[in-house]
Structures are given as C-alpha cells and as structure tokens.
Amino acid sequence: MAKQERAERTRTAILDAAAKVFDDHGFFGATLSDILQHASVTKGALYFHFQSKEQIAHALIDEQFAVWQPLSDLPDIGVQTVIDLTHAMARRLQEDVRVRASIRLVIEQGTFADPTPKAYQQWISVVESCLARAREKGDLVDGLDPNDAATYIIGSFTGVQVSSEVLAQRTDITQRVTTMWQIVLPGLVPPRRRAKFTPEGSA
Fold first, then answer.
1. 57-73 exposure pattern, b = at least 16 Cβ within 10 A, e = fewer
2. CA distances from 37 to 20, 32, 100 (A)
3. Which residues contact 148 (CB under 8 A, 6 or more apart)?
4. Three-state secondary structure string covering 97-131
5. Per-residue pLDDT of the chain (203 residues; tens, 9 = 90+)
6. Domains in the chain and their CATH numbers?
7. How far is it, in rounded angstroms, from Cα 128 to Cα 149?
8. Closest CA to 85 of 117, 118, 131
9. DSSP letter string, 48-64
10. Dist CA 174 CA 92 (whole Å)
11. Considering the entire predicted model, what is its pTM?
C-alpha cells in the first residue's frame, strides 16, 4: 500500500472513530483515549494527523459544512432548494454519524478553547444566496432581507433537529422539518407564489 494511501486510511479511521465518540459523548465528554481505542491506531499515528481533540473536532465540522458551499452555484436555485437542503440534512442526521457529530460539535463550540462560527456562517451564507436568487424571481415577500431570513431558517432548523433528537432520537425529524416549512413559508413567500413550493421536499 502506498504511503499516502495508508496515511489517508489512518486519517479516515481517526475521523470515523472521533465522530462516533463525539456523537455519543459530546466534545467535553470525549477523550483522545476513547478515539484511539475506536480507531485502532497508535498515539503517534493520531498525532501525525491531529495535534489535539479540538483539531479533530474542527476537521469534522469543516468537512461536513463544506458540502453546502458549491450549492449556491446550481441552476434554478431558490426557496425549494433551501427546503430540499434541510430535508437532505435531516436524512443525513439519521444515517451518517459524521454529520450528527459535526452538528453536535457546532452547537457545543462554547466548550472549545478556540471556538469559531465559520461553519454556521457558511451555512447561513449558502441559504442567503438561494434566497437572494428567490427574491430576483419574485418568490420572497417584499421587504424581507435574505440574510435575516437565512439566519432565522438555520436557527429554526437547528432547534428542530435538537428537539427531534431529545424527544424522539430523530426518528421524526423529517416530519418536524416539514412542519417547520409549513409554518415558515407563509412569512417567506408571497401568497400568489406559495403553491409552487413543497414543504415535504421535492427530492
């Protein structure tokens, strides 16, 4: 096996193990010993890739939130794009431990030595870009600022997924996201344009 490929496999094993530990115990409760045990790598191998638990956490956060950045370049984006993004994230929260860990870590950044809102701001920025395009098409109510709306939507989604985790282990997250959009759409989209959007997601 080539040295570079072996190093990449080791890094992947560390991130997979860290995601499981962070998802189960949160940032404060996780230890490097737990991560090492789950990853089945040596301490030297871990420190070759990451200098601290916090550096591993930032890597997981950056990896998951980076996928949203190119979406603002898709054709025909707008309100339905944002609806579909939140439903896609809801499904990934049910299926992907790395996504669950990254979202938990974003929420728990107050316990980091070096917290940064960059990932959360990136998500808001992507949604804002979609809503700015929606405004150009007449799909946003007059006077509504896309940044204000994007910040509210991301905050609402964050609350919805936390509630779903606490109350139902995220088994009902898709329905909760649909309900969120049934509430949000009347304040976001003019009545004459509302019928074209699907709160349940179009994907």
1. bbbbbeebbeebeebbe
2. 11, 9, 20
3. none
4. HHHHHHHHHHHCHHHCCCCCCHHHHHHHHHHHHHH
5. 577 788 899 999 999 999 999 999 999 999 999 999 999 999 999 999 999 999 999 999 888 776 665 565 566 789 999 999 999 899 999 999 999 999 899 888 877 877 777 878 888 998 999 999 999 999 999 999 999 999 999 999 999 999 999 999 999 999 999 999 999 999 999 999 999 999 999 87
6. 1-56 (1.10.10.60), 68-196 (1.10.357.10)
7. 7
8. 131
9. HH-SSHHHHHHHHHHHH
10. 11
11. 0.87
User: CA–CA separation, 189 vs 175, rounded Å?
Assistant: 21
Chain segment 178-191, per-residue pLDDT in tens: 999 999 999 999 99
Torsion angle, alpha carbons of 126, 25, 48, 37, to 10: -140
Tokens (6 digits) for 165: 């985790």
The CB density around residue 139, as the number of other CB atoms within 10 Å, is: 19
